[in-house]
Every structure is written in C-alpha cells, then in structure tokens.
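User: Watch each token:
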Amino acid sequence: MIRLSVNVNKIALLRNSRPLGIPDVVRAAGLAIDAGAHGITVHPRPDARHIRSEDVYALHELARARGVEFNIEGNPFQPMLELVRAVRPDQCTLVPDDPGASTSDHGWDLGHDGARLRPVIAELKALGVRVSLFMDAEDKAMTGARATGADRVELYTEPFARAFGTAAQAAVLARYVDAAKAAQRAGLGVNAGHDLNRDNLALFLRTVPGILEVSIGHALVADALEFGMKQTVTLYLGALSGRRTA
C-alpha cells in the first residue's frame, strides 16, 4: 500500500496570520488521520513562518497516540535538527532548502554535500529515525544517496507536475521511472512529494514503480477548502489506489 502523509504547513501558515489560534493545526491533522491518512508531515523553518516548535511537539504526540507516522522535513544544517533530536520522529526527510526560500525547489547535490550529510544521517539512524534524502530525479545520483547511509529518497516531483498534460510529460515521467529503479537497485526505498495533486497523482503512481509514500500539503489543503479535510483525504486515498476522484 502506498502511504499518504499529509503536510500541515499551510494550515499553520493561515493560523499565523492572526493571533487567534485558528485554524487549529492539531485538530486539522486529527481530521486527516480520522479519514485514513497514514502520517503527518511538517517542515519547520528558521523563521517559523508556519510550523512552530510547539506544533512539532503537539503533532508528534498526536501521531504517536493515533499510531501514524510522523515525518519532519527540513535542512539539517539549520535549527530543525534540534527538534528531530528532541522528538525522534519516525522519519526525517533532509531537504537542502535555503532559509529564505518560499518552498523547496531542488534536491541535494551529493558531490557538494554528501560528506557533511553522512555524520548527520548516522546520528539520526542511531536515534532510531528513518532517513530520507530529498533528491532530483537523476538515476546516477542514487548510488551516492545510498552511500550517505540514507534509508530512502524522496523524489522532488515539481518538474513532473509542471510537465503534466504537456508534450514533455512522457519524457519527464521516464526520468522518474529511471530514478526510482536506480534507487531501488541501490537498496533505497522511494518516496515522492512536491506539487502532487488529485489530477496528476494517479498517473505518477501508475507509471513510477515502487513508491512507498507520498507527502502532500499545498494542493491537499487547497482542496480541503472546497471539500473539507476528511473528504479531501478520502479523495487522495482514492487517487493512491487508482480510483477516479471527483
């Protein structure tokens, strides 16, 4: 079964726009879990523009109580790593985002960063945390990802989302197929995330083999404004299983 992890960053971003605590990030995460989501993802940033440290602790407690996976994303060379050490999530997805970036927009360059990632990954694994590296869909990079000690890669899927429905779609998808197969040959599990939505998700999962987990936030939260959180998660779970969604 391909697992769905719901990223609740955008809910926190809306809450932070007013000092009212509305919407409640933990409540929203609970609704997603009620609807069948397999996990919750957060991506804290140094400026706390959305997820705050107290959210990380509260969501970790919720995930543990409800028996779902908790995934923390972020750059390990920023303060995010202190939160990972404190709560020991099920998974930590290491992302090379710059502090001022509006969103993650590229995978790791392991020729540049591989050596400094290795001790971080070793520490996290010693804490019992599964480690995933955010990577571009480059098949030749996957042996390097395995050499860092990572357990998984998360394929950065914005290029696929941009190509979806265009003449470039087939060629771009082929790169993801090659990257996923290369990762699996290297002994890595494969996750995926970024700009996946109800329209493009089923095609991606039908075409790219062996995806274990998708992390979806922006599109899912946007859909929840129309359908509500529970119905939206149900629609995404349908897309994961190949069912037609409304």
About this structure: The longest strand covers residues 69-74. The chain has one domain: 3-239. The chain has a mean pLDDT of 95.
